[in-house]
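Intended use. Records such as the N-acetylneuraminate (7)9-O-acetyltransferase entry shown here are meant for training and evaluating sequence-to-structure methods. They are not intended to support clinical decisions.
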Amino acid sequence: FKGGDTCEYLLSSGRFLGEKVWQPHSCMMHKYKNSEAKDCLIDKHVVFIGDSRIRQLFYSFIKLINPQVKEEGIKHGNIPFEDKSASIKVDFLWYPEVNGSMRQRIKSWTEGFVAKPHIIVVGAATWSIKIHNGSNEALAQYKINITSIAPLLEKLAISSDVYWVLQDPVYEDMLSESRKMITNEKIDAYNEAAVRILNSSSRNSKAKVKVFSVSKLIAQETIMKSADGLHLPESSRDTNAMILMNVYCNKIMKPIDGSCCQPQPPLTLIQKIAFCFFTLSIFGYLIISLIHRNNYRKNKSCTDLESGEEKKPAISTPYISTLEMLLHCFCKLGLIMTYFYLCDRANLFMKENKFYTHSSFFIPIVYILVLGVFYTENTKETKVLNREQTDEWKGWMQLVILIYHISGASTFLPVYMHIRVLVAAYLFQTGYGHFSYFWIKGDFGVYRVCQVLFRLNFLVVVLCIVMDRPYQFYYFVPLVTVWFMIIYATLAVWPQIVQKKANGNCLWHFGLLLKLIGLLTCIYFLSYSQGTFEKIFSFWPLSTCFELNGNVYEWWFRWKLDRYVVFHGMLFAFIYLALQKHQMISEGKGDPLFSNRVSNVLLFISIVSFLTYSIWASSCKNKTECNELHPSVSVVQILAFILIRNIPGYVRSVYSSFFAWFGKISLELFICQYHIWLAADTKGILVLIPGYPMFNVLVSTFIFVCVAHEISQITNDLAQIVVPKDNSTLLKRLLCIAGFFSGLHFFSAMQDQSRH
């Protein structure tokens, strides 16, 4: 791993993903929009100096600022461009040869008589080859001229960004007769001279002319599509312009998915405090562990001096105190969080852009499905949506979602729509599971609420601190947290209606239905009243949790996208438990859920519904329109799947232990992927082993799954310590947690103030 400046990689190396997507070596390139380009280049002056090839690059560059620009300038003359709204000036200066005229123009900027441009892009050679018929004398003169210009460019490079564009190869078979002397051999000789001479006299790293050599690599792949064998096709020019924009703008705009040329972000105050805390935890655990082990060894075997017999101690295993267990958890968590930080905040490991192909998504899907079927076992119970079955469901859905993310399949609308159903199915299980627990157990105690909230949010809170990200960034956890609190409030508010009470009087069932209707009404109202929703979540302290980029629009969008599915899960649980109570379904091993006729009819309807939804989702043409329908229709495929999975007794009696294992750590997998499997906050892919994509995915996946499993264990261990069953102790812990979040808010406010 060379490390170093990713700008050098961006300017000099890379490869094509497919036909048009350029992937720089080791870093990610951001695709700049017009508004972003204007924000970056506001009040800037950019100059392109050279021949017709540089003119092409000039036009591609200004089209990033204003796509409406047409290539109508004078062919062999200067072309000005100005965007008055952002005070941006971009000029093309026609100097097709490296000669005295070009030198005089560059010298005028160094003498201070004319304002220096902020960005200077220079390049020329083909005209010298053409005019002088490729003679060696012309090459010798080129070397003399570039030697005289080099010190001036290096002087400008102290305060401006100066780029020398190397000459692209030509497609010799397509060149016209007047250009036949322009050969790739000659071009290589001119490029070699430019590289050797530029920066040869400069010892100051700030005064270096940046050599733009990546254009050669791009041209090697695309020059065959050239119209005349000399000039690059438009797509290649646009790629070069985007690279140029990334080199200059990434350090200014700091886009998440543009890791090239971005410096490592400085540690925040909260990150420094977290680092100190984890360091102290590691040392504390080591000290206590050594003391305990030493004491244990002393007491392990004691010899009776009189009889010569060995006596066994009363305690055969070392005692682990609560403090030692707590420090042990934080010790492991500290090491894991260090790995998180190194992967996605430090510039230690490489990152690459995603690139979708059908094979990169569907082949892994087939592979994991075969593995899942291979690990089939009998369930301990045969109830509908039993524990093993729900774990299996979560597991295969999570694996499909992971493959969806790493393959960049969100660009393929049919896959996107099906993945939206999987996310909805998670929320459906949230409604089903929590409703079933409260309805059957009737346990509305603080202990249960704190346990659920801790298990859901612990990892995300730690990541918000270590990775310097807002809570809403990990959108799924806020979503399930809020829905859990809504379910709790709906059922816990007076009158508390639970199964035990409803069994004594059927009218209570109607009371519960009224509660559910009230919940549905509130959901419907908020979904069509964005202003009210945003006002509710814009109040402090909710705003600190749900704002992203200064507003709660993202939170409203995420909530609205699956607004009805939790209600559907609650309603399904109520109907299922009522049918189960009245013995209207058969859940024996191998028995169909209903009578044979009813089971066959329902199974047929379910299969047709499942396929109908898939056909509709696959025929989607517009993501916005399909997202509008999704909240109302996603439940169709979810219910169809549940019935297909549970109506046949033999299907209900088995499960995949492979998928169930992943299902038990599905939440950790979903969150951890942000930083240690994907990269740049899910926008790219983490590269631990460059040059071997498949091997890299295998290694990073193994580490990622192990880390997710370990974090799940840590969360479970800490939940027992932090959330005790004793109410008085729990109250003290809650006060400590309140103090922790108050301190976190205080330091966060200090941090924001120092940034501004």
